[in-house]
Amino acid sequence: xxxADGNRGNGGGQRGQGNRRGQxxxxxxxxxxxxxxxxxxxxxxxxxxxSDRRDEAGRQRHRGQGGSPRQYGSxxxxxxxxxxxxxxxxxFEVLRAVDQDDAYANLALPAxxxxxxxxxxxxxxxxxxxxGTLRERGLLDAVVSRxxxxxxxxxxxPVLDVLRLGAYQLLFTRIPAHxxxxxxxxxxxxxVGAGAGGFVNAVLRRVSxxxxxxxxxxxxxxxxxxxESLALRYSHPAWIARVLKQALVVxxxxxxxxxxxxxxxxxxxxxxxxxxxxxxxxxxGELEAAGAQRSxxxxxxxxxxxxxxxHRLPGVxxxxxxxQDAGSQLVARALAEVELPGAGxxxxxxxxxxxxxxxxxxxxxxxxxxxxxxxxxxxxxHRAELVxxxxxxxxxxxxxxxxxDGRTLGKKQPESFDRIMVDAPCSGLGALRRxxxxxxxxxxxxxxxxxxxxxxxxxSGLGALRPGGVLAYVTCSPHPAETVAVIExxxxxxxxxxxxxxxxxxxxAAGTSxxxxxxxxxxxxxxxxSTVQLFPHAHGTDAMxxxxxxxx
Length: 552
Prior knowledge:
This protein has 552 residues and is an alpha/beta fold. 47% of the residues lie in helices and 12% in strands. It is built from 23 helices and 15 strands. The strands form 3 sheets. Strands 7, 8, 9, 10, 11, 12, 13, 14 and 15 form a 9-stranded mixed sheet that branches. The two termini are 35 Å apart. Mean pLDDT is 86; it is low at 1-51, 62-68 and 72-79.
């Protein structure tokens, strides 16, 4: 994820905030005339079943559904909220940045929380609404499409984001229906346009007429097979659900775990932390006071409930505590701690694809403790700058950052490094719970180009590895094409390369049996080694893959 990507996300959020009184220019609801705005809103309201008739208290009458009599709203005009509350305004702002500017929610949301000055409680609600709406977007769209009188592509994008946000509250939270409706209509009137308020109100009332399980049953009725049915119920593209089923089988688990895996992708993950070893004072007391708990899987790791701005946690702003998934921490520690098969020095370490810098910071801190030196490589200068910022807390003598194509480094610096991390660019299918918008941006057509790049980077890394050193090939994806297929291809090409017992190394780093090992006899070209595949439903981590290799 590049700095440019993050800036687009933050910029999108700022533009959304700036337009709170004139958002109509972007939404198609605005300055092409208040009359056009009113006409569009009124058409939407009538089409969805609204009416302008009111009772003596001013409560609006809505069309009954399924032959039931017309009913009046529960709130009079004087009782309704008039402006968007800060939590929902923040969530809406981030949803627009993701949809409109291709922003990354994990970058845009903390910036929006700070910009809106949300307290911890409001920040928690904004986090749940943002990530939950993004995760459940497929199911929410399927539900909303059954409650409007037009294809979703003809609904103005800001209005559609509001409908998703409101439907998520109705179907996936404990917020009372009347409160969710009132707050969402207020947000619409405040940030989108008054004309759209009636349309949103009518559509969400239809959504509220069925329980979540009723909607899931209705939506999944159209599925062609059981996998597609699960994909619809758990809001995943069908192709991703099929890949995950295949990955479970290939990596030694069972296809019957698919539903648990899809459900885990939709659960709000804990925020994992690591205090970089050897840096600063021990922050155990401060982390415990902030509600963090020690990880049972990774030594030195912490976790805390999702929600809010991580920069408020102890040590994060200073860079000595980092937000990093437990699986990422574990693979970095496994590479650092595995015994080198060959004799010789252990002084030069390489992170071939270091951006944005999480594993590089942990590896650099460990290298500093041991008197080793880490070279962190990134292909583009702006990404290399992200790595430098991530390493600022680590003693400068322990690391160097370079910008260059990792595919050429094996020829430029052959047999130069003792430990190498190749955390290759990948589809990111293993981190869908943390980057919920990613599932709607990925395509099966992306995979061939990625596997070609991954193989080229791995071969270059092996060229830079000295005989007797260790290289870790890592992806945040369980896709067999990006994991074992790449390893088997390289083992076929390079007869001087051996797969090590990665499972044993990972268990040693964890201090317990992780239960993620794939035995050697199922990896073509290997007779003694093993690979590792973590899964969120089984290990509570992102779906990290790891294979340790050495050169003879």
